[in-house]
Specification:
Low-confidence stretches: none
Radius of gyration: 18 Å
Organism: Arthrobacter psychrochitiniphilus
Distance between the termini: 5 Å
CATH topology of the largest domain: Diaminopimelate Epimerase, Chain A, domain 1
Pfam family, one: PhzC-PhzF
GO molecular function: isomerase activity
CATH superfamily of the largest domain: Diaminopimelate Epimerase, Chain A, domain 1
Protein name: Phenazine biosynthesis protein PhzF
CATH architecture of the largest domain: Roll
Structural class: alpha+beta
GO cellular component, one term: cytoplasm
Helix content: 10-25%
Number of helices: 5
Strand content: 35-45%
Number of strands: 18
Largest sheet: 18 strands, mixed
Number of domains: 2
Order of helices and strands: EEHEEEHEEEEHEEHEEEHEEEE
CATH class of the largest domain: Alpha Beta
């Protein structure tokens, strides 16, 4: 074991402790996957990342992303939080305000502008209708009738999200799902606010068989929802989504479509700096 730099950042919130926390271990080369998983489980956060030297010349750094139970090829709030932690640790991107993160899903462009950090969403690896029997099961898990679900789609970009659209943000906020029925499903729910509201959508993310049943603010889910809703005309090319409201958080996710690419971003606030023995 040795002492390694350690950070905790709050992602998707301009105010500390109102977004989604991320643990970041710097200079993690030499750690095994088992050691990383053990530490990620111990932090009891939704995700922990480990920053390593890149293995390809195009990348500024490499990151491995672990939930409390498994390694993920990609996740959104860990991408933004790792970028913030890497920059604050003295990292310098090769191309000005754009940096490139290497992860198991490939190379992810990340940009810094207007006080926010945003990632270019990787392509969805599964994107399409959900079997009707599964939609009925999802409705049961969410505690609503099948008729309340306007549409559903697979939105897989690392996590195996099933996206669900309801008719309003109020319906999303009123959900009281049953985690005991979820099994290993990962369900993301979205509904629109009315005109004149600060945010255009409310989002909630439910992760079966996970110690963190409801995720406070979720970049990968919002990336998939953005692709789906913009493609189907349910959302404009630029919008803001709220997430974490029922958990007392104030997550704000800024989404934009630029030259065919979905960008997902928000503020990232540093909260903890120190070292960890690993």
């Amino acid at each position: 074991m040795k002492m390694r730099r350690y950070s905790e950042v709050d992602v998707f919130s301009e105010e500390a402790y109102r977004g989604n926390a991320l643990a970041v271990v710097h200079d993690a080369d030499g750690l095994s996957a088992e050691e990383m998983q053990r530490f990620a489980t111990w932090t009891n956060l939704s995700e922990t990342t480990f920053i390593l030297a890149p293995s390809v010349p195009q990348a500024d750094y490499r990151v491995r992303i672990f939930s409390a139970r498994e390694e993920l090829p990609f996740a959104g709030h860990p991408t933004l939080g790792s970028a913030k932690a890497w920059l604050e640790a003295g990292g310098s991107p090769r191309s000005g305000g754009m940096l490139v993160q290497e992860c198991a899903a490939g190379l992810i462009p990340v940009r810094v502008a207007d006080g926010r950090i945003a990632f270019e969403a990787p392509p969805l690896t599964r994107y399409g209708p959900v079997d009707e029997m599964l939609v009925h099961r999802v409705a049961t898990i969410l505690g609503i009738s099948r008729g309340k679900i306007i549409d559903a789609s697979w939105l897989v970009n690392g996590p195996q999200w099933i996206g669900v659209r309801l008719s309003s943000a109020r319906e999303v906020l009123g959900l009281r799902p049953d985690p005991g029925k979820a099994g290993d499903l990962e369900i993301g729910v979205v509904g629109p606010y009315g005109p004149g509201e600060e945010s255009q959508f409310e989002v909630r993310a439910f992760i079966g068989e996970d110690p963190v049943w409801e995720d406070p603010v979720t970049g990968s889910l919002n990336a998939g929802l953005a692709r789906w809703m913009i493609d189907t005309g349910a959302a404009a090319n630029h919008y803001v989504a709220s997430q974490g409201t029922v958990l007392g958080r104030q997550g704000r996710v800024h989404v934009s479509l630029n030259d065919g690419a979905i960008w997902v971003g928000g503020h990232v606030t540093s909260c903890v700096e120190g070292s960890v023995r690993l």
